[in-house]
């Protein structure tokens, strides 16, 4: 059924569970197991960045000739063996079933991870590949790059984006490529963030790292409660929280009037009403969080800045995959995301619930739909899976060491 190159017999540390499973199945000649894994994972085609910028959305095949195999071969790589984004080489994403539908007849071999210890050449058989797709073994939702950063400050910065990375089925600690290929990374950044180039990426990641994207009203309400908790030692009830928030808003407005000598340019009554409604939303979300095991009975959400810091962790890597950033810039942004998070929160549990509340306030509107239930599922994975960074990366970090793995 298939042929593994000589490199496949060398001692080797696989980068992820997918490469480990493919390596073991190929070495043992268990091609049924091999294809079940291969059909359940993403495959990436090496491409020219210049070509993809000129013709986005297309994947022009680039067959090659290997001296050890008769006929042309087409190279694909699994996620763990992708090179860091450098030079003109980029990767576009597909899968085995999609590939089978457009397979060029002149190509005789599918070269999986060529030039690596897991190299495997498979005879072209698109009809059988489609059948294998029906028996594909899906990947674990929590994906870890075993050969990547798993300890230290850089891993901490990556773990700040774990809720979103795991939800998207991406590798939580991969620096340059997470889920989509080069074109997909660019399209998603444009669609969701309005980022179409390096200047926009720089501005967006900086605003996220400064906590300037979340609504100031959300953070204001939570800070009022934190101040009351520090003063009285216990969380205030809804009435005291709302009354205190109103007094602070009135006092701030008076300061503006005294300083400028003019009436405020905003509607104070409307701001008070919105803040009081927001406090009710937060309390209802927290009650649901407790019911679903995301929040301990006596705990409250400290801050929603995790919603920005977690997305900054992801944005640092999305920008690298889209080639809007250099690797050193992404690493600095990840370290800053981790440091900013530690300035506000005291544990992964506090950070996580701040992220979830921010996401829900932004998207969910108390519908408790997918925007919420997806986070419940991911929170459970990250709280219990032995490979979770929440269980392996300490919240408190020593001085950054970029050589740590």
State the gist of this model.
This protein has 405 residues and is an alpha+beta fold.
Describe, in plain words, how this protein is organized in 3D.
There is one protein chain. The chain is α+β, with helices and mostly antiparallel strands and 405 residues long. It has helices at residues 17-27, 31-39, 49-54, 96-101, 126-133, 153-159, 162-167, 182-193, 198-209, 216-232, 238-260, 268-291, 305-321, 327-344, 348-364, 370-384, 389-392; strands at 3-4, 43-48, 64-65, 72-76, 89-94, 107-112, 120-123. A hairpin with a 7-residue loop joins strand 6 (107-112) and strand 7 (120-123).
Mean of pLDDT:
92
Put simply, the count of helices is: 17
Helix percent reads 40-55%
User: Largest sheet at a glance?
Assistant: 5 strands, mixed
Question: What is the gyration radius calculated from CA atoms?
Answer: 25 Å
| N to C succession of SSEs | EHHEHEEEHEEHHHHHHHHHHHHH
